[in-house]
Structures are given as C-alpha cells and as structure tokens.
Design brief:
By secondary structure, this protein is an alpha/beta fold. About 35% of the residues lie in helices and about 15% in strands. The protein contains five helices and seven strands; from the N terminus they run αβββαβαβαββα. It has a five-stranded mixed sheet with strand order 5-4-3-6-7. A two-stranded antiparallel ribbon has the order 1-2. The longest helix has 30 residues. It starts with about 25 loop residues before the first helix and ends with a helix.
Length: about 190
C-alpha cells in the first residue's frame, strides 16, 4: 500500500518542508522582489558605466597644459601660475550641458571642502548666460567666461571635461563626462 503523502521517489509531501514546499508569494512580495532585482541591476549598470568612464579619461596634452591668462567673473586675473604649488582642477563646462548640471554641484562641493586644492572653471558661455544660470550665487572658485580659445587650446571635445594638475602644474589626469561621487577627491590625492 502506498501512502498518499509519499511520492514514488520516496520524498514525502506531507509534513516535511522542502525548498519547493513554500507557500506562493503574494502579489506585494513578488513586486518587492522584482523591484529589488531591478534596483540591483540598475546599480550594477551604473557602476559599470562609471568604471568605463573612469578608464576612458579625457584629452591628452603632450607637452603639458597650455598656458592661459584671463579675467574671472569676480574680476581677478587668473592663470595657471595662480595654481602652482598645489593640486588643481580645471573644469570645462557650459550652461546648456545636461551632464554639467550633474557635475557642477560636485565640483562646487569639492572646492568648498578642499580649499587647499585650486579650482578654476572655464565655460564657453557669455558672462550674461553664466550670471543668469548662477541666479545671483557666487561660485566658490574663479569662473572664466567666453573661454572658447582656452577650451580649443586644451583640446576639449566634450563637456564636462576636467583636468587634474599636480603641484608642478603638470596634468595628472583628465576626464570627460559626469563625475561619480568622490572622484575628484580620489584624483587629487
């Protein structure tokens, strides 16, 4: 006689609990599991894209960074010489650039938290466009407007582009695209 709770392979279906004996998930539990799966997939995709962007880098300038002399929106004279003796960041951006809208707050926060690192921003926009975009706020670093000639000399082909210079004024790294959080801190150390 065969017990009705025993299958032919000898595994009981009665009181024994196996991996396939769990009750079905509710609609909410399935939705939560699906959301977790999508979130993990998205997180991994973002991490992979950030890694690719990190490795891609920006322009290489044989012979070092081209010198420039300009007047910042604050009225101060700005050049690479003003950055000598400390690590520095030269940030090329534009008001119309979507990726710049994500990167600029990171550059602002970095500059405010790291006063020992020199930061200069260069945009090809006019002073009026930048003033309108800033909405009366003062950037925490010198801002150069109408920087088309500087961007061309630095071979900037995409925005945003960031150059990190060492204390001797030589390019340590360059990067085009949206920054990942903490990236400037890592690149300037």
């Amino acid at each position: 006689m065969v017990d009705e709770n025993t299958t032919t392979d000898g595994v009981g279906d009665g009181d024994a609990s196996g991996p396939y004996d769990r009750p079905p998930l509710s609609r909410g539990q399935r939705a939560a599991a699906t959301a977790r799966s999508w979130a993990l997939t998205l997180l991994l995709a973002v991490a992979l894209l950030a890694l690719v962007a990190w490795l891609r880098g920006g322009p290489e300038l044989p012979g070092g960074p081209p010198a420039f002399y300009a007047t910042a929106t604050s009225g101060e004279a700005v050049s690479l010489d003003t950055l000598r003796g400390r690590a520095a960041v030269v940030y090329f951006w534009a008001t119309w650039c979507s990726a710049c809208k994500l990167t600029t707050p990171q550059v602002n926060a970095f500059a405010a938290a790291n006063p020992d690192v020199g930061v200069i921003a260069v945009t090809t926009d006019s002073r009026a466009e930048v003033d309108r975009w800033l909405g009366g706020e003062t950037p925490p670093f010198p801002m150069i407007t109408d920087g088309d000639a500087i961007a061309a000399a630095w071979q900037v082909r995409a925005l945003p582009t960031i150059f990190v210079l060492d204390a001797e004024g030589q390019i340590r790294s360059s990067r085009s695209g949206v920054l990942i959080p903490g990236e400037l801190w890592l690149r300037t150390r």
